[in-house]
Design brief:
Length: 383
């Protein structure tokens, strides 16, 4: 292996998560797998095929470039939905390839209609309505015009969905705001149906809403973090276990990050280790270097704080995290040697280092830590 570390993606862990999700969902609710942010760092290329193997057939992305990546590796039967950015000039490409996309303003809706007429193929749209997140979504003022346009052009438009997104379902602090959003969504839903049109699916929930507010599941849920084996927040997990009695962990993290010991050496009492004077050897020490640094996504903020697993033990990062390497204290490990496996995220023997513990220390959340794992670290599928 030329690379200094490797990320493993576990197929069986993903299968277990998909099974849990399907059992948890209300009857008949469709599961769309959210693979934006390069499948939360797992990479679209590696993740999409194993998700399909686990039974997933609907993928949600943020933008057209991500949709294109999914399309390259997915099965012909899987659906792709763009929830965010697509330029007007690319709408004909999306329509041609039967890629579904959100419309949240008149400009995109009108452009989609023009493109659909031009290539004589239906645009598959999801009407995103404003319910209180105040990010994207049709405001009331434009909504009437949009509905009229959809109604009058049903030979050019497939009304795939009506949708919204909650502004923080992962925290009880936003409880009232979420309830108001849900109420508003239902009011708009009734108004649209009064006009005599109806989307194929209503959808609003991501991972947190799916767990905490089951009513929001509607016809489809868009799940990201949960399928990769993480709870959106600790609060969401506590909500789950308080509802289902004794604590249990139905999710499995599918990603592990591993490297190898580059070298081992001794340091005398009273010497500083690494750049500057942040770490002083208080006794005779044995240290090892790992060829992972901040350029590989191991935050410099974890200097003198981070932990890794080696030799079946949890050991500390000492001194500053360098660009390409970091140093660990292996004084207490009797037989650590060059080439030994080092786990940065994942399991070794009985011990586990989760992204969560890694993120808390560096003040990043799961979402951010995962998506910032560099693309040039090779991903390998394991069972
Ligand atoms: C990212 C995203 C999701 C998925 O969020 P998770 O918390 O990872 O499940 C769902 N819907 C929209 C619109 C999103 O942007």
């Amino acid at each position: 292996m030329l690379e200094t570390s490797q990320i493993e993606i576990s197929k069986s862990a993903l299968k277990q998560n998909v099974k849990f999700i399907n059992e948890y969902l209300n009857d008949g609710v469709k599961f769309s797998s959210v693979v934006k942010g390069n499948a939360y760092g797992h990479t679209i290329e590696k993740f999409v095929p194993i998700a399909e193997e686990a039974g997933v057939d609907h993928f949600s992305v943020f933008s057209a470039d991500e949709a294109n990546l999914v399309k390259k590796v997915c099965d012909d039967c899987s659906d792709i939905m763009i929830m965010g950015n697509i330029d007007n000039e690319d709408l004909h490409w999306a329509i041609e390839n039967e890629i579904e996309f959100y419309v949240f303003e008149m400009d995109r809706l009108e452009s989609a209609l023009i493109a659909a007429k031009k290539i004589n193929k239906k645009a598959k749209i999801h009407l995103e309505v404003e319910t209180g997140m105040n990010r994207t979504g049709f405001d009331n003022s434009d909504l009437k015009t949009a509905i009229k346009l959809i109604k009058e052009n049903q030979e050019h438009i497939t009304f795939e969905g009506m949708c919204t997104h909650y502004a923080g379902a992962e925290s009880i602090a936003n409880y009232l705001r979420i309830q108001n959003q849900l109420k508003k969504f239902n009011r708009i839903r009734i108004a649209i149906e009064k006009e005599g049109i109806r989307p194929k699916r209503y959808h609003s929930a991501g991972s947190a809403a799916t767990i905490t507010y089951p009513k929001t599941q509607m016809d489809m849920v868009r799940l990201g973090i949960l399928q990769y084996g993480y709870w959106p927040t600790r609060e969401t997990y506590i909500h789950y276990i308080s509802k289902y009695g004794e604590p249990r962990q139905p999710l499995k993290r599918i990603l592990s990050w591993k490297s190898k010991v580059m070298n081992v050496k001794k340091v005398k009492t009273g010497e500083f280790i690494g750049y500057g004077t942040t770490y002083l050897a208080q006794h005779e020490m044995k240290i090892a270097n790992i060829p992972i640094g901040y350029s590989h996504g191991f935050s410099r903020g974890l200097s003198n704080i981070g932990r890794v697993l080696v030799n079946g033990q949890r050991v500390s990062v000492i001194g500053m995290v360098n660009m390409n390497l970091m140093t660990i204290d292996v004084t207490g490990c009797s037989n650590v040697k060059k080439g030994d496996e080092v786990v940065i995220i994942g399991k070794q023997g009985e011990l586990e280092l989760s992204v969560a513990s890694f993120s808390e220390l560096s003040a990043q959340v799961n979402y951010e830590t995962l998506t910032r794992l560099p693309v040039n670290i090779p991903r390998k599928i394991v069972d």
